[in-house]
Design a protein that fits this description.
binds zinc ion; Alpha-Beta Plaits; four-stranded mixed β-sheet; disordered C terminus; 11 helices; twelve-stranded mixed β-sheet; alpha+beta
Length: 447
């Protein structure tokens, strides 16, 4: 596993930092963060026009849409032109298929990623290699705001796997010397393993922790019960809502500030906190529209966004499904970037296994996806993981008539190979998926 992590690190180091535009983009972002509102609008207008020309020339879906809407890509447009585009949903992108992908790039040169999160169908996302270097420059600016340079080592508690979920005595971490990342297994977090994680962090002289707040919080709680702290320069969290109480616990345990960030696999919107603790929408990343919600979430806004950088598969006015609370605040940090109060709608929950491991839903969602990917050969029409009211996990499936005892055995085998053995999952055959009385279904993953 150590070799695998190092090899992957070498590839990342080349693609993210050296082959593409990383160095150039980093210097650019260093300057643009101090631009005033008018300068930022000029930057956005220029980037949007470039993107629209590219879309009209090379992306079949947008060529047709823009022709239908009479939008000329060859004339300079203002940002208001976006209002003429319909809002794009995940379902639209799925049904458009390859028509969303630019014809400019040979298919074999594109990288394919899938949407993260824990609900809904997986969306394949094509990325060109130039966009990967640009993305990395945005990521590293956040690290710079958190006081971290390229040579500082960071520990990661995310979805990356360093050991099989059932391995009991394997090494639960691996170090990537290229990206200077110590990858810790989120799937083995328990009171009995945390000491070895902290030991590894000391051994590798780690300056910061990056990961899911639910996972890092487990370490903070452990340190508190031991009456200890583990001083770091900063903690960076993402993917789940960071609660006030969690933030405070992390600050106390690691004696540093916590920087939270929001991004998504679709790469249309990026929000991160500055040194003053404000959430800033990054205007150089794309155009982010905040559309007020109705009904139960009326104090929130939906994030609808257009990303500037992924030319392989541009998404215009994409509905991210995520919500924020807006703020009229100006931040004291001196940047003119818009501020939001908080990111909501990605509430974090954890599952405790029978042997005391605590795994966040975002992390375990990755394991569930591995299971669902392997079900393709079984006669199962539809399936999903759900969180039951008692905190347990259920697997509901609608099977075809041909579903046999042998299929049942194969299913058990897949479960035992992909999921922690101490996580009981109740398998249920159902005729159709239903909602609970409250109308709330916590659907973790659906194939
Ligand atoms: Zn600020």
């Amino acid at each position: 596993m150590q070799t695998k992590i190092a090899l992957k690190g070498a590839a990342n180091w080349l693609v993210k930092r050296h082959i593409g535009p990383f160095q150039y983009r980093r210097r650019w972002l260093d300057k643009t963060q101090w631009a005033d509102a008018a300068q930022l609008e000029a930057i956005q207008t220029q980037l949007l026009n470039k993107l629209l020309r590219h879309c009209h020339r090379t992306v079949p879906y947008y060529r047709q849409l823009m022709d239908n809407l009479n939008i000329s890509a060859e004339q300079e447009c203002s940002l208001d032109i976006l209002k003429q585009f319909p809002i794009l949903t995940k379902a639209d992108v799925l049904s458009a298929g390859n028509a969303m992908v630019s014809k400019k790039y040979p298919r074999r040169l594109l990288h394919t990623a899938y949407t993260g999160g824990s609900t809904g169908p997986r969306l394949p996302l094509r990325r060109d290699y130039i966009s990967i270097g640009n993305e990395h420059a945005f990521v590293r600016r956040q690290f710079e705001w958190a006081g971290l340079g390229l040579s500082d080592r960071c520990a990661y508690l995310t979805w990356r796997s360093v050991a099989n979920p059932n391995a009991a005595d394997a090494k639960m971490y691996a170090y990537d010397p290229f990206m200077k990342e110590l990858v810790l297994s989120t799937f083995h977090l328990s009171a009995s393993t945390i000491d070895s994680y902290l030991e590894a962090m000391k051994q590798y002289d780690v300056q910061a922790m990056v990961g899911y707040p639910s996972a890092i919080y487990e370490i903070a709680k452990y340190l508190k019960t031991q009456g200890r702290t583990f001083p770091l320069r900063s903690v960076l969290t993402s993917s789940e809502t960071l609660g006030m109480q969690q933030r405070q616990a992390l600050q106390d345990a690691f004696e540093c500030d916590v920087f939270d960030f929001y991004g998504s696999a679709e790469r249309v919107c990026y929000i991160y906190t500055c040194e003053k603790g404000c959430y800033h929408i990054l205007p150089e990343y794309g155009v982010t529209e905040l559309i007020p919600c109705e009904g139960a979430n009326e104090d929130c806004c939906r994030i609808i966004a257009t990303g500037f950088w992924n030319y392989a598969m541009p998404l215009i006015r994409y509905d991210t499904g995520d919500l924020v609370r807006v703020s009229g605040r100006q931040c004291e940090c001196g940047r003119s970037f818009p501020v939001v109060d908080s990111i909501v709608g990605r509430a974090c929950q954890t599952i405790e296994t029978s042997s005391g491991r605590v795994i966040g839903l975002t992390a375990i969602g990755r394991l569930f996806k591995n299971v669902l990917l392997r079900l393709a050969d079984l006669p199962i029409r539809d399936s999903r993981f759900v969180l039951d009211d008692n905190g347990g996990v259920g697997f509901e499936m609608i099977v075809e008539q041909a579903f046999s005892n042998e299929d049942e055995n194969n299913l058990s085998e897949i479960f035992s190979e992909e999921l922690p053995n101490d996580l009981p999952v109740e398998v249920r055959r159902v005729e159709a998926f239903s909602r609970t009385v409250s109308g709330k279904v916590v659907s973790l993953v659906r194939a």
